[in-house]
Specification:
Length: 277
C-alpha cells in the first residue's frame, strides 16, 4: 500500500492529487538521449506520466495547502482534466474553509488551477478563509506575460486574489508558521520556492518542481524544457538534494509517482530516490 500521509513531529502531511499529465519524454527532456535513460527501466517508454500532486500540511493550529493542481484550465494544453483535488481533500475530511494558507510553489498552470472556482457563473476563492502566498519574482514575471493567450489562466486564477488583497507576495526565506519555512529554489521559474517542515527533530521537504522525475535525484544536471533557467535549476536541484540527504529529510514531490513521499538513499558517491511504501 502506498503511504498517503506522513508524520513529521507535530505535523501531518497528506498527499492529494488533481490527476495526471502526459508528456513526450524526449520533448520534456530534449537534451537527453535514449542512452541517458537506460539505467531507469521505468522511463524507457516514449511517454512520461506525471502526477499532479498537492500536499496538505496539518499543524497544531494551522492547515496549509501546497499548490492547487490543474483544475478545469484548458489554456493551450492538451491534458486530461480530472479535477480530483477537492474530492480527495473531502475524503480526508478537509473542507475548503479549513485551509488557512494556500502556498503556491510557483505560478505554472498545473499548480494554481483551483485557486478560484466558478459557481453560478461567478468566480470566487475556492478556499475562502485562506491567505494565498507566492514569491514576488514569480508574480512579476507571470504578470508581464498576462496578455499572452497561454497565460490567460493568471488572469483567471491569480490576479483576482491580488485585487482582493488575498495574495501575499513574499521574498526569500521566510517562516509561514512555526516549523514551516520557505527555501528559495529558483530556476524552474524565477521565484520557485520549496518548503521545509521541521518538528521534533524530524524534517520533510516539499520540493515543488525543483524535480519532476525520480532519476533527477541521481542526475541533478537533468533540467527539463519547462525550466526557464536550466543552469540555475540544475544548481538549485543539486543543493536541494544535498540538503535533503544531509538532514536525512523526507522528500515530498507532487510530480513523482504518487503519493510522492520518499527518501534519498546514498550509495557510494551517488544517491537515488526510494519511495516510501
Ligand atoms: Zn508542475
Amino acid at each position: 500500500m502506498p503511504v498517503n500521509s506522513i508524520k513529521i513531529g507535530n505535523f501531518d502531511i497528506y498527499s492529494i492529487s488533481d490527476g495526471y499529465m502526459i508528456f513526450q519524454r524526449d520533448t520534456f527532456f530534449p537534451e537527453l538521449t535514449t542512452e541517458s535513460w537506460k539505467p531507469y527501466p521505468a522511463y524507457l517508454l516514449p511517454e512520461l506520466e506525471m502526477n499532479i500532486g498537492s500536499f496538505v500540511i496539518r499543524g497544531p493550529d494551522k492547515t496549509i495547502l501546497v499548490d492547487t493542481g490543474l483544475g478545469k484550465l484548458d489554456h493551450h494544453i492538451e491534458q486530461p482534466i480530472r479535477e480530483t483535488l477537492l474530492s480527495e481533500m473531502e475524503a480526508l475530511k478537509f473542507n475548503p474553509g479549513d485551509i488557512d494558507i494556500v502556498f503556491l510553489t510557483h505560478l505554472h498552470l498545473d499548480h494554481v488551477g483551483t485557486n478560484m472556482i466558478k459557481e453560478n457563473g461567478v468566480w470566487r476563492q475556492t478556499f475562502p478563509n485562506a491567505m494565498y502566498m507566492v514569491n514576488r519574482s514569480d508574480w512579476e514575471m507571470f504578470n508581464r506575460l498576462i496578455d499572452k493567450p497561454a497565460f490567460q489562466y493568471i488572469k483567471e486564477q491569480v490576479q483576482p486574489l491580488l485585487s482582493n488583497g488575498c495574495l501575499y507576495l513574499f521574498e526569500g526565506a521566510i517562516s509561514l508558521i512555526q516549523g514551516v519555512t520557505t527555501i528559495p529554489t529558483p530556476g524552474h521559474t524565477p521565484g520557485h520556492t520549496s518548503l521545509l517542515i521541521e518538528s521534533d527533530g524530524e524534517m520533510a521537504v516539499i520540493v515543488g518542481d525543483a524535480a519532476h522525475v525520480p532519476p533527477q535525484v541521481e542526475q541533478p544536471s537533468w533540467s527539463p524544457a519547462p525550466d526557464r533557467d536550466k543552469k540555475l535549476s540544475a544548481m538549485t536541484r543539486e543543493s536541494l538534494m544535498d540538503l535533503i540527504e544531509r538532514e536525512n529529510a523526507l522528500i515530498a514531490s507532487g510530480h513523482f509517482p504518487k503519493p510522492g513521499f520518499g527518501r534519498i538513499i546514498k550509495i557510494n558517491s551517488g544517491r537515488y530516490y526510494k519511495p516510501l511504501i
